[in-house]
Amino acid sequence: MAGLFTHQLLFSVGILMCVALCLLPHHAEAATRHYEFNIKMQNVTRLCHTKSIVTVNGKFPGPRVIAREGDRLLVRVTNHVPNNITIHWHGIRQLRSGWADGPAYITQCPIQTGQSYVYNFTVVGQRGTFFWHAHISWLRSTLYGPLIILPKKNVPYPFQKPYEEIPIVFGEWFNADTEAIISQALQTGGGPNVSDAYTINGLPGPLYNCSAKDTFKLRVKPGKTYLLRMVNAALNDELFFSIANHSLTIVDADAIYVKPFETNTILITPGQTTNVLLKTKPNFPGATFLMTARPYVTGQGTFDNSTVAGILEYESPFLHSVTPLKKLPLYKPILPPLNDTSFATNFAKKLRSLATPQFPANVPQEVDKHFFFTVGLGTSPCDQNKTCQGPNGTKFAASVSNISFVQPTTALLQAHFTGQSSGVYSPDFPINPLHWFNYTGNPPNNTMVGNGTKLMVLPFNTSVELVMQDTSILGAESHPLHLHGFNFFVVGQGFGNYDPNEDPKNFNLVDPIERNTVGVPAGGWVAIRFLADNPGVWFMHCHLEVHTSWGLKMAWLVLDGKLPNQKLLPPPADLPKC
Ligand SMILES: *[C@@H]1O[C@H](CO)[C@@H](O)[C@H](O)[C@H]1NC(C)=O
Ligand SMILES: *[C@@H]1O[C@H](CO)[C@@H](O)[C@H](O)[C@H]1NC(C)=O
Ligand SMILES: *[C@@H]1O[C@H](CO)[C@@H](O)[C@H](O)[C@H]1NC(C)=O
Ligand SMILES: *[C@@H]1O[C@H](CO)[C@@H](O)[C@H](O)[C@H]1NC(C)=O
Ligand SMILES: *[C@@H]1O[C@H](CO)[C@@H](O)[C@H](O)[C@H]1NC(C)=O
Ligand SMILES: *[C@@H]1O[C@H](CO)[C@@H](O)[C@H](O)[C@H]1NC(C)=O
Ligand SMILES: *[C@@H]1O[C@H](CO)[C@@H](O)[C@H](O)[C@H]1NC(C)=O
Ligand SMILES: *[C@@H]1O[C@H](CO)[C@@H](O)[C@H](O)[C@H]1NC(C)=O
Ligand SMILES: *[C@@H]1O[C@H](CO)[C@@H](O)[C@H](O)[C@H]1NC(C)=O
Ligand SMILES: *[C@@H]1O[C@H](CO)[C@@H](O)[C@H](O)[C@H]1NC(C)=O
Ligand SMILES: *[C@@H]1O[C@H](CO)[C@@H](O)[C@H](O)[C@H]1NC(C)=O
Ligand SMILES: *[C@@H]1O[C@H](CO)[C@@H](O)[C@H](O)[C@H]1NC(C)=O
Ligand SMILES: [Cu+2]
To answer: What's the CATH architecture for 8-150?
Structure first.
């Protein structure tokens, strides 16, 4: 399986990451954990390009946030940069605390230059790997970091206790300014420029020019079990990942324990996280293995087809001796082809909830409301007297049920809470697309999308089934859809057009995977169920940032319940204003 590979530059410097997770102070009960996020510019060099990027506390990637299940987090974000900023705590449910969720103009107005805002939320009933990232324009390209929620004290993992825990966060590095890239793309209507490298913990690694010194290196001891906490924080690309000559045991996906299974390769979409166990070999002193990631691609557009690599290195008694390490062979993994949809399908099917008494899969068995949304690309007209660089001189667009979401200029949650929604949004997102067509057959002649700021309104505790159907307009494509405020169960998926009579017969209502981001298969559909037990306005969008920019997003409005503990709390006093 592994080929031999040597690269002299690899060993020239090599950055040794501090990999040990800091041990949290011993709190028997839930604690409040304070973090200061100072948003500032920092010059960072990668691939021999230095650029000034937006960072948290000057760090790239940003700092780790660590807490335990049940803790309250208080993160004061102070904006010292010219850009507007918001931060999202990806995967955290924000029960009744939607004001701390973060998507700009959905739950809050941005934190403007010179302002600060305290994100205040409690982590209820969740533990696992999450991440935080900016949720405005494309600023999350540099503003992101891991958010690790440990189980409550003295509650073990439902798998072997790892010797060490290591975050592995994928990102995308652009030599150019990403704000300029998306703004240029939205003006010309064409596809945005692609990234120059993928990164592991901010480092592109030895397969790029001028990058060998920026290589993530994981030094391990033999015969131990490591827990890799993996996050895909890349802007626009799903990624395959593999470590040469090692298999990985998946134990968790999107901070939900799963029935463990072994695999040589994982697939992780932007917005997804997964925990995997890596068992090191008994005796391999000084041996080195590459770990690599590159994209899984289904769309028609151009993309960054490069490969990020890091190094897994076994401790050696000779490590500090004069033995030149570069003489040792380096093993390289083989990743699936860039378009390996059958891998993607099989991998998705292997993910099952633990569904034990301690970690049950509370799949809604009855459904109050069925929804069917299409997701996909489309076009919008070019400004008069201009030529655009999208299909046939139009602009690229994207939509949910042919509605390309128009971002409001004030936050939806505030508009709802203060009863001033008129002129901000309309509560009439359609239950089904207005026009049926063969969604995965020949695309319709008219590819123009409609637009609007439409919300789907749900009474408290509605049990929802949503089928998301990819369309073939401008090419079928896998879309990683992310829902805020909830986890959902992935009860079914398939290719072609969803059949409401036949397909539900095969739904898994016993142990489906529970997650917050799911890949809608290219040219296919996925069915999810969730219980709308969290009042607020909850964004749902493709986690490929380019598609979000083009309008593949919408929002749910979950109304308050009758009981006092079923109501959205009032907004904090420092909530930013528009
Ligand atoms: C980044 O580099 C530029 C050019 O060298 C310099 O003017 C600027 O002060 C630096 N910024 C920071 C935050 O260090
Ligand atoms: C955080 O939110 C809780 C619940 O609303 C509130 O009681 C507490 O005072 C808030 N803390 C801060 C520092 O704002
Ligand atoms: C995008 O790429 C094109 C072609 O290489 C280049 O002309 C343009 O300046 C780039 N845009 C940005 C914002 O870097
Ligand atoms: C790396 O540099 C070499 C030599 O300058 C060049 O031929 C090659 O295209 C570069 N590769 C990449 C990926 O930039
Ligand atoms: C990546 O794309 C470039 C340009 O299209 C092509 O030359 C190269 O062979 C591709 N590399 C891989 C690994 O597919
Ligand atoms: C994947 O790409 C290969 C090489 O470009 C091509 O031969 C093959 O038909 C593609 N497979 C699919 C499923 O698109
Ligand atoms: C477009 O061009 C026509 C003819 O040249 C001109 O009359 C019209 O004002 C232009 N419209 C805009 C929006 O620039
Ligand atoms: C662009 O125009 C060509 C020729 O008129 C047509 O075949 C094609 O479907 C059009 N594409 C789109 C995306 O509208
Ligand atoms: C949709 O189009 C595909 C491809 O042309 C075709 O195989 C399929 O039968 C069509 N489905 C329906 C429901 O018309
Ligand atoms: C789409 O355009 C083609 C070619 O112009 C035409 O034959 C076909 O009837 C059109 N289809 C629809 C649904 O309008
Ligand atoms: C929404 O659609 C209308 C009608 O096509 C168009 O005039 C308007 O520019 C669109 N708005 C946005 C923000 O795209
Ligand atoms: C920042 O947000 C405010 C409030 O929405 C808006 O008025 C302003 O134009 C934004 N500034 C920038 C630089 O985007
Ligand atoms: Cu998408």
So the answer is: Sandwich (2.60)
